[in-house]
Amino acid sequence: MNSVFNHLIRPxxxxxxxxxxxxxxxxxxxxxxxxxxxxxxxxxxxxxxxVTEGAPSANRILQAGDVGHHGSxxxxxxxAIKDSKFVVWFGPVLENSLTGSLKNxxxxxxxxxxxxxxxYPLRDxxxxxxxxxxxxxxxxDPENAKAITRALAVIHSHxxxxxxxxxxxxxxxxxxxxxxxxxxxxxxTQENRPYWAYHDAYQYIEKAAHIKxxxxxSPDHHISPKASQLLWLNKxxxxxxxxxxxxxxxxxxxxxxxxxxxxxxxxxxxxxNSKDFISSxxxxxxxxxxxVAQ
Length: 294
Description:
Elements: H1 2-8, H2 14-20, H3 24-27, E1 37-39, H4 42-52, E2 59-60, H5 75-83, E3 86-89, H6 96-102, E4 108-110, H7 142-159, H8 164-186, E5 193-199, H9 206-209, E6 211-218, H10 227-235, E7 242-246, H11 252-256, E8 261-265, H12 277-293
Parallel strand pairs: 1-2, 1-3, 3-4, 5-6, 5-7, 7-8
Helix pairs in contact: 4-7, 7-8, 8-12
């Protein structure tokens, strides 16, 4: 298991954090009842479900459709966090609503602290990188998804060592399925096909889906686009018929200003597609590809 930690994490490893927090003794104690592991949001839950197949599931804190950008934590969520052996989240950059409860919690583990993932900066509405920032939607990168399952397997194994072999087998199966899904999505598609997004949340799926952002309408899907940005998109459209990927339904009046344009709705936490991570990821990629190809 130590080799997994060394592969995934900086010298300040999860194990050192647990020792420092005084939880080492509990890691060595087997229990007849499975210890509770909680995870933050829906994509983390889907990845955890892939790891724990055949073993007890993790508890999910946030509801489907809520990645943690906004809102607050309920009293029941607070209790679940306190009662869990470990709580796994991405980190404050994504889940602002959980920061107050988890940033300094001794049982919390933030994935963004791992030195194990492909990372990209946020981009402005013209698709230019914003220096010193992090685009937090890391789970949409297939290699990141595989790395997250490996990290989750380590965490679940510390909480419930009796299922370690199950977790390890599930991680191997997940990697094989993920690689096949990527290969299936890429069949017959050309690379770097342009698309628009209402809000730039799909950067991590671009390489695998063979697409490239040509601009977005707004820096946040809750903010209406400026007239100047609509003008810029129309003046700089790389192909006549564009695809725009949205978090939700876009008004007909807005779409009329961008014609000709196709649209597809893809929720960033993949909660509108399936209860299986790989099926959800593949459906998202295929639907975007269909929109781009029309």
